[in-house]
Write a structure and sequence with these properties.
The chain has about 140 residues and is an alpha+beta fold. The chain has one domain (about 30-135). The protein contains 4 helices and 5 strands. Strand 1 (about 75-80) and strand 2 form a beta hairpin.
Length: about 140
């Protein structure tokens, strides 16, 4: 067993401790703060100085064209009266609307972790819900 563990360590595949940085910091349940942070990173014009790298990387991971079309708007806590609910975060750019979200112990779809098509937020606005689950 010891040699198997050593082999895994040598291959950098052995894992121990907290699974994510947010868990290690004890902030993994602070949804509002994490949503604000995510919105900050997804704004291509933000003070982080990364431009569209984060948004482009997310689009690429979702299998969408990674080219960021401007203008990009990043909105937090957008009311959706027709659904009697509120979107925590909405990212819009020409041709693409994203609803990134993290659900604790559930989500809008049974198959969480994959992008889902959803009803439009506004008339003629297709959107993609990006659901990820806590592991």
């Amino acid at each position: 067993m010891r040699s198997e563990v050593d082999d895994l360590r040598g291959e950098r595949r052995w894992r121990g401790g907290k699974r994510t940085l947010t868990h290690a910091l004890g902030i993994h349940y602070l949804e509002l703060s994490l949503t604000v942070g995510l919105a900050w990173f997804l704004d291509p014009d933000g003070w982080h100085g990364l431009g569209s790298l984060v948004l482009s990387g997310l689009l690429d991971q979702l299998g969408l064209a990674p080219a960021v079309a401007r203008p990009v708007t990043v909105t937090r806590e957008e009311d959706r009266p027709a659904w009697k609910t509120r979107a925590d975060l909405v990212v819009r750019m020409p041709g693409t609307t994203l609803l990134p979200g993290v659900w604790q112990g559930g989500g809008p779809e049974a198959d969480r972790g994959a992008p889902h098509q959803s009803a439009p937020l506004h008339a003629n606005e297709p959107c993609k819900i990006v659901a990820s689950r806590r592991c």
